[in-house]
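Ticket #282: bound-state structure for fe (ii) ion.
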Amino acid sequence: MSDIAQHLAVSHKVDIEDLDWETARCVGLTKQEVESLLYFADIESQTVHYFLEVSKLKVARDPELLTFLTMWNYEEYFHSYAITRLLKECGVEVDTASERAAKVRANARFKAKFEDFMQGLIAKSVPRTFISLWMFWGALQECLTTQAYEELANLTKNPVLEELCRRIAKQERRHFAYYFNQSKRKLEGRRFDQKFVRLIANKFYAPVGGGVKTDAEGARLVAQLFPGNRIFEVMGYIEKKMALLPGMDGLDCATRWAARVQHMLPPETRASEVPEHLQAAA
Ligand SMILES: [Fe+2]
Ligand SMILES: [Fe+2]
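RESOLUTION: The complex was predicted; output attached.
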């Protein structure tokens, strides 16, 4: 079965109707969980804008890619919707998923607009390379997203949040697998694409949401979830997976990012020490 057929066979909006909302309300959420969930809901709700931007490009109008993007966008929307529901059930005042999406976009920083512009430029000048980059970037971000939901599931005392995070993480893992396999296919034997993608990852890697959140906000959220030296473990795990792709041997963009942002973090979430080989990046 092709990648896309497998995806089509299992794609669905994340189930939430069977969750035990009564228990969710009784146990409640910690302040930190609320912060993380608000951030996740904001970022998930922005997928539609990534989708809109990329679907404007001629090179993305490949039927298989459009099919994937449609399902991906649909699933991500419901991640935001489900998180919003949980927050509301637990007494957190929050706009609906659609209202949040519009507000976050309205505040999108110059960086988001610049990203859109650069994306268009790359897509027009080197269309095939752009697709390689899109797949690679997608895999890199979905891998972090999967780790983030799993961490939240492992740490929470709220069984409903745990179950919701596990269900969402399962879909994120599937998104990662699609992007990763596509990326492998696109990068194989294409030295220019490999070098270009590696260069962009080294220069610009930051966790998803960089356009609509400040660097410090993104860094704080990641460090809150993976405090202390754990940030290097998780980022190291992600880049090692990505390093399996053609031309990516020894990739260290994610751990270098973690070293670079240490000074932006509240002292209690900072790493006790930056690994020696990353100290120049810090
Ligand atoms: Fe998601
Ligand atoms: Fe995803």
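RESOLUTION NOTES: The radius of gyration is 19 Å.
TICKET STATUS: resolved
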